[in-house]
Design a protein that fits this description.
189 residues, mainly alpha, 2 domains, 7 helices
Amino acid sequence: MTIMDPLWLVLAAYLANAVVMAGLWVLQLRIRNASIADVGWCAGLLATVLWYASQASGEIERKVLIIVMVTIYAGRLGFHLLSDRVIGKEEDPRYQRVRSRWGASEPLKMFGYFQLQALAVAAFSLPFLVIVQNPRPPFALAELLGLVIWAVGVAGEMAADRQLARFREKPWNRDVRRSSCSPSERILV
């Protein structure tokens, strides 16, 4: 195994994700559902961390743990978003509002948004690169505390997804749309 310089790992990860996001942007032009960017972000994060683990120096036990954690987090979220917001679904209202606000410049701005997702994957993957390169024997108290925090976060995310699904199942809640701008929508606008 050739160990690459961390800067090259991050740069290569960004470039690979930029290419994938460009392809997803083309796909969303056809399906008219920009929620595919969210799924692409999850898949990109998972692929990037897997690649880091295969290329970076560090202890194998720590790499395996990080791979499992990211697979559970990004894999679960990606499949949830794919089934809940993309396959056979109408585009998320956030993206519909953004498209109407952007008007004729929407395709170019949406391309920029998809590229921003590639940059976000590279930025969000940096802590994982630092962790998989740690040469010390696993597992320090700080790492175990981080594992507990991660488990609480993922469990909370899963509970929130179930609560939202139950909320949407009620006939009187099916057409409820968010009236205010979410933080991610503010970035788009």
